[in-house]
Write a structure and sequence with these properties.
Radius of gyration: 20 Å
Number of helices: 11
CATH architecture of the domain at 123-278: 2-Layer Sandwich
Structural class: alpha/beta
Strand order of the largest sheet: 8-9-10-7-11-12-13-14
Length: about 325
């Protein structure tokens, strides 16, 4: 199957590197509204074609799948165009701006018999499946702590008076949408919808959230996630039970290890994962497109729906409103 990328950001390069390592899809075209940016990326990765006209790309019968990694607020509109053109889509996180957009896009994709995959990494990692299987070994789960802290390379631009898309309400940006989606997805994937959600955050002068704390409450345990785009810090995940705990090194987006601690005795249960962590989701998406356990798509979409609902509630609590929230969808 031939694929085209839409967008030229760093995450697009990570995707291209992973795509080439995984090897299932054929990367045919780099799309950008800026022809020069498309050409630079195509030459860097040996991609044969570029395109700078959106309608031309959609009309290209050679392209089967679009990978979309553009500012968050554009996800829905671009993906909708692709679906109407009968293209499958791999949509970078966060999937869309809100639950309303999710429901509309999902219904449209179903009607047009195409897939719109959510490119959220953790659920496709080998260590996620391992984590899910070994949780009973810590006894009754009581508390979960997750940290996703990453000082943005665009922060100084914000402080200098610019408004990068990742720090713009107009572009559905902010710490919750960019980083919070990871711990929320991990928790919802493991335990389903929480009983209640609480979000507190620090905002900049333009109203965007720079950091925050998310609490998801379940019947017998509480999960706390710390997120920040304005500071550095230690990234980790710990599942605490009454007879031991599980420690996962690095950010919740990576799940690089699964270490069991019982009475001070450490046992590594995780397995080595590829450094290019997107290879796992690419493999899964290609499999579904070729009939390998297609029911997984239904499960992934149910997860994404709940995650969007949780993030909508978080934003509502702190008054983070996007222009996309006011739009009337076709």
């Amino acid at each position: 199957m031939k694929l085209a990328t839409v967008g030229t950001s760093t995450i697009t390069e990570h995707f291209i590197q992973s795509l080439k390592q995984e090897g299932s899809f054929t990367l045919d075209t780099i799309y950008s509204r800026d022809p020069h940016k498309a050409q630079v990326l195509a030459e860097k990765y040996g991609v044969p074609n570029t395109c700078s006209d959106w309608m031309t790309l959609l009309a290209n019968p050679a392209i089967d799948v679009l990978y979309i990694a553009t500012p968050n607020a554009t996800h829905y509109g671009l993906a909708r165009d692709a679906v109407l053109a009968k293209k499958h889509v791999i949509l970078e996180k966060p999937y869309v701006s809100n639950l309303k957009e999710f429901e509309s896009l999902h219904a449209l994709a179903t009607k047009n018999h195409v897939y719109v995959f959510d490119a959220i990494i953790p659920m496709h990692l080998p260590n996620y499946a391992i984590l899910k299987s070994v949780l009973p070994r810590i006894g009754a789960l009581r508390i979960i702590n997750l940290a996703m802290v990453q000082r943005s390379s665009r922060l100084n631009s914000l402080y200098a008076g610019e408004e990068p898309a990742i720090f713009s309400l107009k572009q559905s940006g902010g710490a919750l949408m960019d980083l919070g989606v990871y711990p929320i997805s991990v928790l919802v994937g493991l335990f389903g919808a929480p009983q209640s959600v609480k979000y507190t955050c620090s905002t900049y002068t333009n109203g965007i959230d720079l950091n925050g704390a998310i609490t998801l409450t379940y019947p017998t345990f509480i999960a706390n996630a710390t997120i920040a785009k304005d500071s550095t810090g230690l990234n980790f995940t710990v599942f605490g039970g009454d007879s031991g705990y599980l420690h996962l090194d690095k950010a919740p987006s990576q799940l690089m290890s699964v270490t069991l601690n019982q009475g001070g005795v450490l046992t590594e249960l995780g397995e080595h994962q590829e450094g290019l962590s997107m290879v796992y989701e690419i493999k899964d998406f290609f499999g579904v497109l070729h009939g390998d356990r297609p029911e997984r798509y239904t499960e992934w979409m149910a997860l994404t729906r709940t995650v969007m609902a949780v993030m909508d509630e978080c934003r509502h609590q702190v008054g983070l409103t996007f222009p996309a929230d006011q739009e009337v969808l076709p």
